[in-house]
Amino acid sequence: MEPTLPELSVLRRFWPGFDDTRTTHPVRVGGIAIGGGDPVIIAGPCAVESYEQTLAVACAVRGAGIGILRGGAFKPRTYPGSFQGLGEEGLEILAQVGRETGLAIVTEVLDPRLVERVAAVADMLQIGSRSMQNTPLLIEAGRSGKPVLLKRGWSATLDEWLGAAEYVACEGNTRIVLCERGIRVPASEGYARAVLDLNVIHAIRTLTPLPVLVDPSHAAGRWERVESLARAALAASAHGLLIEAVAADTDRALLRSDAEQGIPPDVLERIAGYARLSLPRNSR
Ligand code: PEP
Ligand code: MN
To answer: What is the pTM assigned to this prediction?
Structure first.
């Protein structure tokens, strides 16, 4: 079964030759090309919880030879009573850590009214799974002109996901990177957070010129499972990975968000080494 893109697709309009060439349109983030030949890793904490924690993880990220740091200042949480992120203070920490380490910054924006503020700090705006169909947010992110990391809604079909990408593209912003992060199906309940859909990588790569990353962390839910899922995603031709990391296993007890799924530095280094050995992405 070959999926097709609707005739009216904006993505089609931007890249009329895509059907013939089927080449990926790389998106540059802080001088790094996502969707170029080499897989790109973005890694960092789930949430920015303090300056010290963020700097420690950033040093591990840089030590693994990775150039882009992730970390949420605004966190989408199931319960309002849970830690919601440090907000403005978290953005300031990210800006400082970015300056000190030279890492590019990816961070989530939850609220259309805050796109401009978050874009002042971020090299790339993350739209989270829960926000994938928040059209005012997609439009504002499109208007910002910043690269957008568009995560798949955990129950979204490919068509719905690409439709969301079109809202960003309609604003003239084609710097879009898709990120598969696992879909929720009842069959996986009890042992995993979500099922990583690796089939979707090939579908995206044949349907659109957009780079596609895989986030193994939010599917796994446990750090011990992340490495094998990361390797599987690279083997399935993803353009790279978005991974949650901790600076040390002993930090878990202190963390208020996704403490169990951040990988320690030695595992991050192994994944980065494996990514460096992977075949160039554009070989089909
Ligand atoms: C995240 O990456 O921090 C996150 C909240 O993931 P998702 O939106 O995929 O749940
Ligand atoms: Mn998380």
So the answer is: 0.96
